[in-house]
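JOB MANIFEST
job_type = single_chain_structure
chain_count = 1
residues = 399
[input]
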Amino acid sequence: MEVTRQLLYRFARWEYLGLTLLVLASFAMHFGIIGTPPEPMFDEQHYIPDAQAIVEGHGEIRREHPPLGQAMIAGGIILFGDNAIGWRFFPVVFGGFGIIFFYLICGRLGMGQWAALPATFLYTFEVLAFVQSSIAMLDVFSVTFMLAAFWLYLRGSYALSGTAICLSTLAKLTGAMGLLVIVAHWLMAKRDRSIRFSFSMMLAPLLFLAMLPVLDYVLTGQIVNPLGRSIGMLTASSGVTFSDVVHPSASRPWEWLLVTEMIPYWWEPPYIATISYTVSVLIIPTMAYMSYEARKGNAIGLFAVAWFACTYLIWIPLSIITDRMTFVYYFYPTIGAVCLGLGWAIFRLIGARKANGSRRFRLVIIGTICYLVLHLAIFVIITPVFSLSVTPDQILPRP
């Protein structure tokens, strides 16, 4: 009895208990809905046929993306069959690992459990992050490798970080933005081991060019010029502009923060790509606070600003210059930066009010709990996890 009590006590005080519970909750919800709908939704209609073609030995179909994401979906089909579980198994698994890497990033930045756990809670139950890791699209693979790269960089494993950026870009070209985040943060905050850092970051493009033809050959049996292939991907991607193509779900990057953008991936059950309101309404004040912290040299503020600038703000001039069509789910790589800032802001607010008196401290604690409960409630309402949640046609008119 005493041994059991000691084990329970140790488990309750385990550093990663909160993280473990959040990851298990995420997996339980994801695998609970993985079979619905039993047919491809939204851009799954492109990537699942690609994966099926790979499994059948015909090679990938779409050439505007690198092959790693389609290969991962194909791996799920090989393991679990050509069905919803096979299509979405690895996106779900990568989504869970993304939560782990996000928490580890918080730890490497020195946030501590009482700041890292609220931040990870917000990230776990953020609607856009959850939905993107529920379906067979490329984004979840790219974002998870990017998060792994951030963690490896912060712990000083520069070469492995460059390798992870390569894998992120091999899943989707926007993974290259992760390299910009790391370089920007290094220039602002670290500037250590400059030669080692430079060579390690060069690994990302060099490995990308080396691995791209290998993957293409394994999947298609064709030998391709990696430079020509890369130029072809960029050309195909940049050709989808607002001027040439009309898409009801397309929106400009600044609209993601100023308007509640929603893309219904599926109607019943509701899969809606949208930034959680509890996060979106606080993006601008949170990043303003992170900029203030960055000016003081705070490690969390510096990294959050670099993360936000190089994965979101960069889209604004790109959208204006290239007219490239964009969608709200392009904000998915930036969700972590905002949740990071929110977690730190909550921690600092609680600490400041605790020092100013018990009454204010209690009010802040109550307000924080209400905010987190509201965040969870929005998640329950909008995501397909619970059958009693509203359907998208109650939020958006059916086309």
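[summary]
The two ends are 62 Å apart (CA to CA).
Residues 2-394 form one domain.
exit_status = 0
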